[in-house]
Amino acid sequence: NGVQTYPQSGYEPPQPGLAILRNLKSYRNYGAGVFFHVGGRLEIDGGYFSDNKVGVWIDHDHSDGVRNMVIVGVSAVYRAVTDDLGYEKSYKWPQRIHCYGSSDDDGVIGIRIDAHFWGGTRATGTQIQNITFSGFVPTPTCPDSTILDVDDRGRGTFFDPRNSITDLTVEDYSSAINLCRAEQSGLVQVAIWDKDGSLVGGGGGNGDGGGFIVSNVSAMTMDDRCVGLGNGTCAAFCAGVCLRVLRVAVPAFYSNTA
Fold first, then answer.
1. DSSP E strands: which ranges in 78-172?
2. Minimal CA–CA distance to 44: which of 67, 61, 25?
3. Burial class of residue 9 (count of CB atoms within 10 Å of its CB; 0-12, 13-18, 19+)
4. Integer CA distances (angstroms), 102 to 91, 142, 145, 223, in order
5. What is the pTM of this model?
6. For the segment 11-28, what is each residue's pLDDT rounded down to a tens digit?
């Protein structure tokens, strides 16, 4: 990884502080450009990331921010390098290409959102704002490349819906989101607020077309406004909906909870 808060015990500034990393550059990392792990209230403000396996990976971390930057999956320059090396040398250790040549996580990822925290007052989700993406176009050798996905190592099946995205720009035909790895791990309650619809809702950053990106399962798409985002995404977009978390508690001494 490029910058990481792990190993050791991660980092979380004293409340209510926010630790901000400004104008970072991170490129050609075999892992993540930035790996936030086991902490919280960390923010990246400004920078340029390119040719990393994962641009920003938020893992067991909470209340983070990613703002005002450019994230490139595979640049034209790096693709030319690996093409010149050829298939065998690109995959030979030390591996230069970010697709592993297998069906396991075979692609480059822009931002991977945490699925560990269950909400409450301490964890408030990740806010992603004003990011320009390119280079996440799926190819035959890199089929799982996508701008946004969810860490499939979540804690149970609950997903905090307070993660949000806004003012995103996609400069090419990059895949917007892929929730299939999360679904395969049993995490089928993903809900990410696309405030202005700038990633999948067609809002273009103008404040219109907002809604929620959700797991494409019946429990999450019962509203008529939910539309699947296509094969290979395991995701749907629900325009104009407002989602909230409801916690139901049943006293343990009740013998009949039917």
1. 109-113, 127-134, 146-150, 164-166, 169-170
2. 67
3. exposed
4. 11, 9, 13, 37
5. 0.89
6. 889 888 899 999 999 999
